[in-house]
C-alpha cells in the first residue's frame, strides 16, 4: 500500500531571524510536508497543486494575489499571533480560503508584558539599572523616587481576553480598575476582577493613573488615541500601549510627552517597527520602548505553533476550525 | 505647641544623599523640634537635654556608644524602613532606648519591586529597551525570546508581610507558589494565596523557576544563599533578592552566573551599596541590578515618615508602640 503523504504546507523559511523556529520543525514535520518558498519557486509546476495550507509565521509568506492564484488547492492560512491587520481578509476569502490566528496563545504573555511595562515605568526600573552599573555612580540618592503601583488607578481600554487578564493581575496589586470596551462585560466577570465600566472614555481618562491600550487594530481603532485623549489624561498619568502602534497618534504623543501633558509612556508597539533611528520618541527621557515582545516567550511561541497546526489539521480534515477568523 | 516645648528629634541632615526628604520636613516640624547633627555637635550641652528621639533615614545618623552616651534623655530611635540590621539592638537596649521600624509602609512597594524584577528579568526588559533605541537596530528579530512568568513556579524564601504580598500578586499570574519560613503560616492564609509550605529549602530550590529572597538580615540569614543553594536551583532558574545584600554570598553568585549554574539574577540589594565599580557582578550579562529602590516611591517614603512619627509619639506618650523592634 502506498504510504500516505503528509499534507503539503507552505512556509517562508526555517531559521534565521524571521523563519520558522528550528526547534519547532520536528513537531511540524510530524504532521506536514513542509515546503519552503524557495523550494516552491524552484518547482512551482509540481508543487502548486499539492499545497493545501500556508503556515504564516511572522507575516511570511505574504498572502498576496499572486501567491493565492498560484495555489489552486489552498484551503487554509494559519497566521501566528492575534493581530489580523496584516491580512487582506476579503481577498483571501474570495479565493475560498479560510484563515485562523492564535489569539489565546499570546494572551498571558502579552498581559504579563503590560504589567511589567507599567511597573517598570512607574518604578523607573530601566533608569535605575543604568544608575546601578554606571561608572559614575558613587552613592544611591535617597531622593530618587518613582510612583506607587499598588493602590493606583488603572484604566484598561479594550477588555478582551488580554485586557481581562491584565485586570486580573492588576487586582492583586489592589489597583482600582476602570475599563472601556465596545460592550460591557457580564456583572460576574466585572466583579471577579473588581473592574468598573466606563461608558465614556473621558471618564476613564480623567481618573486613571495608568492608561493601558489593549484593543485590536481595526479601522475604528486606528488613531483612537490622539491629542484630545492625551489632554484628557491626568498630567501625572502614564500611557501604556501593548496593542498596535497605529492605535496611537504618535505625533500627538511626542508633543504630549515633551510638554508634560502626560507624565510618561511605555510602548511595546510603534508604527513602524522599528522606529526610524532619528524618531523623536527615541530621544525622550520619559518613555520606555520594547521591541514588540508581547508574546516573545518560548512557551507562548510553542503554543502558537501548536494552535496553528491544530487549525490547519482541522481545516484539512473538514472539522470545525479552532480560532477561525471570519472576515 | 511652641517650638521649644516640642520634643527634640535628632536627624542627620535635610536633603542631600541620605538626608531626610525636604518634602517631609513640615510633617516632622509639626510634632518635633528638629535638630540636625551639625547643630547638635555645635551645641551639645544645651541640645542633649532636649533630644528625646532620633529619626534614622537611609541608616543615618550612625548610632554608636558615644552618641548614646551624649543623649541622656533619649527614649526612642525610630528607623525609616523595616530592616534594622545596621543597628546594634543590644547596645541600644542597654541604654534603655526603644527601637521602632516601619513594616507597614514598606510592604506594598517592596512586593511590587520584587514582581517588577522577576518580570523584567524573565522578559529581558532592560535588554529589549536597549534594542528598541539602539542606533544599530534595523529590524526586530522574531526569534528573540524570554521566559513566561504566567504559570511558572515561584519559591518565596521568607513569608512575612512582604513575602505574603508577593505571593498574592504571583497568584494572579497563575504562578505556583512555594514558600519557606521560620514558621508555617495558617492554612487559610496559605489557601488565600495558593502557597505551598516547603519543610526543606532543597525542595523549594529544586522546583522553583524563580527564587525570591524576602527575609530579614539576621545572623541566621547571613549568606543564607551560597554555593550549595545555588547548585540546588534549576539551571533555568532566576534568583531575585529584595531583602539585604548580605543574605547572598556574592562570590558564589558571580561564579554561578558565569558558569550557568543558574540562569540569571535580579538584585535590588547588594553588599555594599553601591558595588565597587570594578565588581564582577556589574560585568555579567545575565543580571539586572537596581539601586535599592524597594521603597523608593513618593507614597511609601511619606508613609514611612508618618509611621516613624506615630511610633515616636507612642513611645514619648507612654502608649502601646505600633512597631517596636525587640532585640532577640
Automatic annotation (TrEMBL), chain A:
It comes from Chelydra serpentina (Snapping turtle). CDD domains: GDH. The lineage of its organism: Eukaryota, Metazoa, Chordata, Craniata, Vertebrata. One of its GO terms (cellular component) is cytosol. This is Glyoxylate reductase/hydroxypyruvate reductase. One of its GO terms (molecular function) is glyoxylate reductase (NADPH) activity. Residues 116-294 form the D-isomer specific 2-hydroxyacid dehydrogenase NAD-binding domain. Transmembrane segments: none annotated. The keyword Oxidoreductase applies. Keywords: Oxidoreductase. Residues 22-325 form the D-isomer specific 2-hydroxyacid dehydrogenase catalytic domain.
From TrEMBL, chain B:
GO terms for molecular function: glyoxylate reductase (NADPH) activity; hydroxypyruvate reductase [NAD(P)H] activity; NAD binding. Residues 24-325 form the D-isomer specific 2-hydroxyacid dehydrogenase catalytic domain. Residues 115-294 form the D-isomer specific 2-hydroxyacid dehydrogenase NAD-binding domain. InterPro entries: D-isomer_2-hydroxyacid_DH, D-isomer_2_OHA_DH_cat_dom, D-isomer_DH_NAD-bd, NAD(P)-bd_dom_sf. GO terms for cellular component: cytosol. Keywords: Oxidoreductase. Belongs to the D-isomer specific 2-hydroxyacid dehydrogenase family. This is Glyoxylate reductase/hydroxypyruvate reductase. It comes from Chelydra serpentina (Snapping turtle).
Amino acid at each position: 500500500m502506498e504510504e500516505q503523504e503528509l499534507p503539503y504546507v507552505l512556509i517562508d523559511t526555517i531559521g534565521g531571524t524571521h523563519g520558522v523556529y528550528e526547534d519547532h520543525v520536528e513537531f511540524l514535520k510530524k504532521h506536514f510536508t513542509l515546503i519552503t518558498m524557495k523550494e516552491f519557486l524552484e518547482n512551482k509546476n509540481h508543487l502548486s497543486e499539492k499545497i493545501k495550507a500556508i503556515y504564516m509565521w511572522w507575516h511570511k509568506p505574504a498572502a498576496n494575489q499572486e501567491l493565492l492564484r498560484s495555489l489552486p488547492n489552498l484551503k487554509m492560512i494559519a497566521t501566528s499571533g492575534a493581530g489580523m491587520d496584516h491580512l487582506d481578509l476579503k481577498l483571501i476569502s474570495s479565493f475560498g480560503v479560510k484563515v485562523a490566528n492564535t489569539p489565546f496563545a499570546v494572551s498571558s504573555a502579552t498581559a504579563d508584558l503590560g504589567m511589567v511595562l507599567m511597573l517598570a515605568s512607574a518604578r523607573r526600573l530601566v533608569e535605575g539599572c543604568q544608575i546601578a552599573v554606571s561608572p559614575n555612580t558613587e552613592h544611591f540618592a535617597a531622593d530618587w523616587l518613582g510612583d506607587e503601583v499598588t493602590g493606583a488607578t488603572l484604566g484598561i481600554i479594550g477588555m478582551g481576553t488580554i485586557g481581562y487578564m491584565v485586570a486580573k493581575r492588576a487586582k492583586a496589586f489592589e489597583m482600582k480598575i476602570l475599563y472601556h470596551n465596545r460592550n460591557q462585560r457580564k456583572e460576574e466577570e466585572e466583579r471577579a476582577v473588581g473592574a468598573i465600566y466606563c461608558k465614556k472614555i473621558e471618564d476613564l481618562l480623567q481618573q486613571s493613573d495608568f492608561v493601558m491600550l489593549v484593543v485590536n487594530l481595526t479601522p475604528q481603532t486606528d488613531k483612537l488615541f490622539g491629542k484630545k485623549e492625551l489632554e484628557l489624561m491626568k498630567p501625572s498619568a502614564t500611557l501604556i500601549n501593548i496593542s498596535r502602534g497605529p492605535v496611537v497618534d504618535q505625533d500627538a504623543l511626542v508633543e504630549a510627552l515633551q510638554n508634560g501633558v502626560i507624565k510618561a509612556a511605555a510602548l511595546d508597539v510603534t508604527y513602524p517597527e522599528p522606529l526610524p533611528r532619528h524618531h523623536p520618541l527615541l530621544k525622550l527621557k520619559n518613555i520606555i520602548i520594547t521591541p514588540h515582545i508581547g508574546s516573545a516567550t518560548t512557551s507562548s511561541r510553542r503554543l502558537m505553533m501548536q494552535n496553528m497546526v491544530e487549525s490547519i489539521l482541522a481545516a484539512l480534515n473538514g472539522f470545525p476550525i479552532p480560532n477561525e477568523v471570519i472576515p | 505647641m511652641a517650638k521649644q516645648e516640642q520634643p527634640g528629634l535628632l536627624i542627620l541632615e535635610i536633603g542631600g544623599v541620605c538626608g531626610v526628604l525636604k518634602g517631609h520636613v513640615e510633617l516632622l516640624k509639626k510634632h518635633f523640634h528638629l535638630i540636625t547633627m551639625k547643630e547638635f555637635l555645635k551645641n551639645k550641652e544645651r541640645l542633649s537635654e532636649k533630644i528625646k528621639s532620633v529619626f534614622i533615614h537611609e541608616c543615618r545618623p550612625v548610632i554608636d556608644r558615644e552618641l548614646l552616651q551624649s543623649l541622656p534623655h533619649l527614649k526612642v530611635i525610630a528607623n525609616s524602613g523595616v530592616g534594622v540590621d545596621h543597628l546594634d539592638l543590644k547596645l541600644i537596649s542597654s541604654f534603655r532606648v526603644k527601637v521602632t521600624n516601619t513594616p507597614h509602609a514598606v510592604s506594598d512597594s517592596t512586593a511590587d519591586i520584587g514582581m517588577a524584577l522577576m518580570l523584567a528579568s524573565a522578559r529581558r526588559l532592560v535588554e529589549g529597551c536597549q534594542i528598541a533605541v539602539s542606533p544599530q537596530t534595523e529590524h526586530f528579530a522574531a526569534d528573540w525570546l524570554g521566559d513566561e512568568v504566567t504559570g511558572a513556579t515561584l519559591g518565596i524564601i521568607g513569608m512575612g508581610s512582604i513575602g505574603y504580598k508577593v505571593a498574592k500578586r504571583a497568584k494572579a499570574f497563575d504562578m505556583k507558589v512555594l514558600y519557606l519560613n521560620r514558621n508555617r503560616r495558617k492554612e487559610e492564609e496559605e489557601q488565600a494565596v495558593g502557597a505551598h509550605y516547603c519543610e526543606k529549602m532543597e525542595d523549594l530550590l529544586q522546583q522553583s523557576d524563580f527564587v525570591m529572597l524576602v527575609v530579614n538580615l539576621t545572623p541566621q540569614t547571613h549568606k543564607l544563599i551560597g554555593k550549595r543553594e545555588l547548585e540546588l536551583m534549576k539551571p533555568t532558574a532566576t534568583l531575585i533578592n529584595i531583602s539585604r545584600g548580605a543574605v547572598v554570598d556574592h562570590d558564589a553568585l558571580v561564579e554561578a552566573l558565569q558558569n550557568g549554574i543558574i540562569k540569571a539574577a535580579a538584585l535590588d540589594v547588594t553588599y555594599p551599596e553601591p558595588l565597587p565599580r570594578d565588581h564582577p557582578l556589574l560585568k555579567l550579562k545575565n543580571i539586572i541590578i537596581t539601586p535599592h529602590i524597594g521603597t523608593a516611591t513618593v507614597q511609601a517614603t511619606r508613609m514611612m515618615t508618618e509611621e516613624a512619627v506615630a511610633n515616636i509619639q507612642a513611645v514619648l506618650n507612654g502608649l502601646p508602640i505600633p512597631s517596636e523592634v525587640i532585640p532577640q
